[in-house]
Each structure stands twice: as C-alpha cells, then as structure tokens.
C-alpha cells in the first residue's frame, strides 16, 4: 500500500535518513523501532510531507507521492498522529475532532465518523465540551487518535502513542490499536516500547542512526540480536 524506496532526508542539507526503504501492506500494523534520534519522526514526517526528501521515492498504492503536499496526502488518507499529541488546547474536544475531519474527502461524513470515534472512546463523549488542554495525557492521546480517525485515515501513522502514559493507559492504547487493525486499518506504529510493539505488529523495522538495521516479521526482529543493540544505541 505504502512503499518507501531509498529515502534520503534530513535538515539543512545534512542527511539524517540514509537509503531507507520500507513497505506497509494493506491492513498490517508495521512497527518502526529505534533509539532516540534514530530518525523515526523524520521518516514519518517525510511520509506526511512535512519534510522533503533529498532522494528516494514514496509510493502510495503505486502512485508517486514523493513531492505531494501534506494536504494532498491527507486527502489520500495518509494521516499522522504526532508525537506529543499536539491537540489544540483552547478548543473543545468536539472542535478538535471536527477539525480532524475538515479535509474535502472526510467533511461530508463527519457526523457518522464522530459517532464511530465516540463509540471507540466513550471517555471523549463525556468530555466533548471540555477544553482539550485540560484533558489528562492519556485522554489527549485518545483525542489525537480520534482526530486522525475523523480524517477517515487509510494509513494511520502513530508517533510514540504510549509516550509518558501510565501502564494502564499504555495497555488501553494498544488495545485500541488492535481494534483499529481488526477493522482493517493500515497502521505505522513508531515506538520506543520494544516489547509491546513486537507483540502487536506483524512486521517491524529497526532504525539505527538513520538506516534500517533489522527488518522482517515481528518474531524474526524479536530474535535478532541486532534489534536490542540498535535499540540500546550500542
Ligand atoms: P525520538 O525517539 O527521540 O523522538 P527519533 O528517532 O524520532 O527520536 P528524529 O526526531 O527523527 O528521531 O531526529 C533525528 C535527528 O534529526 C536528531 O538528531 C534531531 O536532532 C534531528 N532533527 C529533528 N528535527 C530537526 C529539525 N527540524 N531541524 C534540525 N534537526 C532536526
């Protein structure tokens, strides 16, 4: 569904990602693992169009989207749930969700999509009028995911959804990820939580200093000693 070939990208002319190739098959959860600064967010930002690659290609369902704008990618259903949630703090939960469904493709279906999102996250239903900035970290993560779903995501890219959450919330977020997967959504899961990601993803890539160090089925990646080395930044 989504293919990245030989991607080189960075900032101010200095590459961070060097010759990165990954593939997401439709309906899979693909884990992208790596230590701090490995380049995981840079890769997601290339996929959402926030960072322009210096070389390489990004294909979505066979269509070359390497130079497509972020807006065009959102219209295709490539949706990023950013690290740190980045909800609009002064706006209500309802307004944040409605904004998620603002693109042309999703706008006509916002009421139906809102019902689905609130079924998935009953806690948001109880807090629809509350300012998003006053939600707990876990609730803000629910809102950020819900906002991404409002855009009728076809590929949902979650950047460190478990970061800073209590163990119960982490478990809950992974249960939600599994539910979305059983509904057929394609998910790219960027995580530092190695064990949980290996348990929930079908395939994984381990990024080490801007390059793919290990890739394959989750079982294979789990058993490869290079995974833990790369992860620990050894
Ligand atoms: P983490 O797990 O800590 O979020 P990461 O694997 O997502 O790390 P990136 O955020 O992609 O890594 O960062 C990779 C490198 O790119 C880091 O050295 C970072 O300082 C650098 N970098 C990220 N964003 C920018 C930017 N806007 N300008 C310059 N350098 C940047």
Automatic annotation (TrEMBL):
SUPFAM superfamilies: P-loop containing nucleoside triphosphate hydrolases. One of its GO terms (molecular function) is branched-chain amino acid transmembrane transporter activity. Transmembrane segments: none annotated. GO terms for biological process: L-amino acid transport. Residues 2-234 form the ABC transporter domain. The keyword Signal does not apply. Pfam families: ABC_tran. The keyword Transport applies. It comes from the Bacteria. Belongs to the ABC transporter superfamily. This is Amino acid/amide ABC transporter ATP-binding protein 2, HAAT family. It comes from Rhodopseudomonas pseudopalustris. The lineage of its organism: Bacteria, Pseudomonadati, Pseudomonadota, Alphaproteobacteria, Hyphomicrobiales.
